[in-house]
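It is worth pausing here to work through a concrete case rather than discussing structure prediction in the abstract. The textbook approach is simple: state the sequence, then state the predicted structure, then interpret. We follow exactly that order.
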Amino acid sequence: MDWEGSRESTNVEDLRGQPMAGGGGGVPFGAGGGLGIGTVVIVLVISYFTGINPSVLLGGAQMVQGARGGYSAPAPSQARATAQGGAKDRTTKLVRSVLGETEDVWSQILPQQTGVKYVPATLVLFSGATSSGCGTAQSAMGPFYCPEDKKVYLDTSFFHDMETKYGGGGDFPDAYVVAHEIGHHVQDLLGILGKANDQEQQVSKTQANAISVRIELMADCLAGVFAAHARNWHVNQSDIQQAIATAQAIGDDRLQTAARGYAVPDSFTHGSSAQRVQWLTTGLKSGDVKSCDTFAQ
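Step two, the predicted structure:
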């Protein structure tokens, strides 16, 4: 993927190296199921994108109570810290460039395809932990979108984790991570996220998980739609295959089986490997927001 030299977004807050300000103890969308403000902070899970319920991955093992005054997250391992420091400048440029491209693409195609004006989101880079409108943001949660403050939160050490833990990684898969979270922002602008949250509060846990899966798969599809219209880059077939391989690696069935030897479909919150690949591919092929209606399937 040839992205260097493309426009870098200015809608980035770089909080790396800064102490965490006090904040609420809420749980980000997808971490623990739902958009509501709670008090539980996930500690020992490397989840994908918006996070995966720790009871799904680790059978409910090792959770801690987040304090409203803030949370002191464990320091990154030496390998992660070194990788993050060595690639910081290039990684920052990549993230800014991807965000800039999402702004250019969605500002054009969202009004054209849906009649809704695109309002850019802010992307927050942090290390370890910070506060967000949805509560404490922690690197162990993975990247996530907070609809309360319209911001994406990302600890860039997650990119290193993708390479070492999931067998993914690379410029285009990293761009896919950012594009997926911006996909949630698009859902928010379209009013889909709010409706999904309302539905989740009225149904059983199994049904709420099914709604979460549809939301996540739609974000995968919207990431594909974005990539189909990303004209300022030279995306080749190898880039696309890397992104597909990453989507396969982080399906709920793969992660659950790796964690405990079997998968429980009713507890899926992001979708199976096959589903994630299917919807990413759907967006890439169609380039059309309407093709991403996972609730119609």
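Step three, interpretation. The beta strands are 12-14, 40-41, 64-65, 122-125, 129-132, 135-138, 144-146, 151-154. Residues 12-296 form one domain.
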